[in-house]
């Protein structure tokens, strides 16, 4: 009897099916300067199964370097999310990303690469439907015959409607 009475505490959260969040991204690509950017996430539960949902995420960053050099990074990912409880959700993502790096030595030469991105994270939801998302996104870029692994750490705050 006790188990049945406590299961009704989370009814408000279980009906919420859309999440929108925005936050910051910390991007580190091997041998290149660190860049900070933004991350936007949209998640929807199609109501076919209450524990799973589909999310879309985008990350963008740009860093100006000395002598007119620059670093740009962008990614677009999507993937499933699985709800462990009404307040804790795990997600995985896969998508595409790109990097563009222009050095100060050769302003006219633009080093760029595209790659498959993958990642995972956790979303915590408060009883007031405010969310905190912590995530990781990784990929490997190839430029001039070298491999450049990339690590992106994401944190965002959002609201579940």
UniProtKB/TrEMBL annotation:
Domain Outer membrane protein beta-barrel, residue spans: 14-161
Major localisation: membrane
Keyword Signal found: yes
Subcellular location: Cell outer membrane
GO cellular component: cell outer membrane; host outer membrane
Record keywords, A-Z: Membrane, Signal, Transmembrane, Transmembrane beta strand
Membrane topology, from the record: Multi-pass membrane protein
InterPro entries in alphabetical order: Bact_OM_Invasion-Related, Beta-barrel_OMP, Enterovir_OMP, OMP/PagP_B-barrel
Protein name: Outer membrane beta-barrel protein
Species, as recorded: Proteus terrae subsp. cibarius
Lineage start: Bacteria, Pseudomonadati, Pseudomonadota, Gammaproteobacteria, Enterobacterales
